[in-house]
Amino acid sequence: MQPIKVHVIPAGPNPWKPVLILEELGVPYELNSFSFEAVKQKPFIDINPNGRAPAIEDPNTGLTLWETGAIILYIIEQYDTKKILSYDSLKEKHLSQQWLAFQISGQGPYFGQAGWFNALHPEKLPSAIERYNNELKRILGVLDGALDGQQWLVPGDKMTYADLAFTVWNDRIDALIFCAPDKKFEGFPNVQVWHERMTSRPAWKKIMDTRAQLMDEQGLQPNGMPKGINSFQEYEAMMKAKAAGTP
């Protein structure tokens, strides 16, 4: 089997979702890592005209694909033949798809907007910050309730791709809403135990080590801030200067 090429921006959460699935399944892959500035430029927009990472190119089937949900479902259908991370049974199969859809439509967008308005938007908008911080916590509440009394989102005896799809955004909550790392799951104990169960696995540790290496190569710290920036205040000042065209 030839390795699947995965195009990633290492700082972004979404590219690591399919990478984690591939790693858990033991499917060979290679990473094409590039900076955020290149995502809306050629040659990448010839692969994904939407200008977002990730995208994959699978030489085994000749398929090029973008959008994480589509990529994950493709990987599962094509390569999880032993049903390591999925089910064949009607109920469990569709519940897995349901939770993946919730991650794509709920967790990802709301968590992303929380991060944007807390950290990146040039103007502080308290109403927007409050809205998306509350939405982030609402999503955690949905997950916490679903996990009450069970280990995984889909009732059964194993972790699925649907569980794994939530890990990367959940892992960054402290950076999104500026809370202490040990407080990011405060009030959501089921989510915390579930998240720790997945991030203690070798596949997670391996891809996060890879991410750290790629971030270092791009002059970025693990939290996404450029090297030499030691606080959010410094980062905010840098972003303001950049927006104003000040060197």
UniProtKB/TrEMBL annotation:
Leading EC class: transferase
**Catalysis: reaction(s):** RX + glutathione = an S-substituted glutathione + a halide anion + H(+)
Matching entries from InterPro entries are given as: Glutathione-S-Trfase_C-like, Glutathione-S-Trfase_C_sf, Glutathione_S-Trfase, Glutathione_S-Trfase_N, GST_C, Thioredoxin-like_sf
Report domain GST N-terminal positions. Answer: 2-83
Similarity section: Belongs to the GST superfamily.
Q: Which organism is it from?
A: Periconia digitata
Q: Which residues form the GST C-terminal domain?
A: 89-218
Q: What is this protein called?
A: glutathione transferase
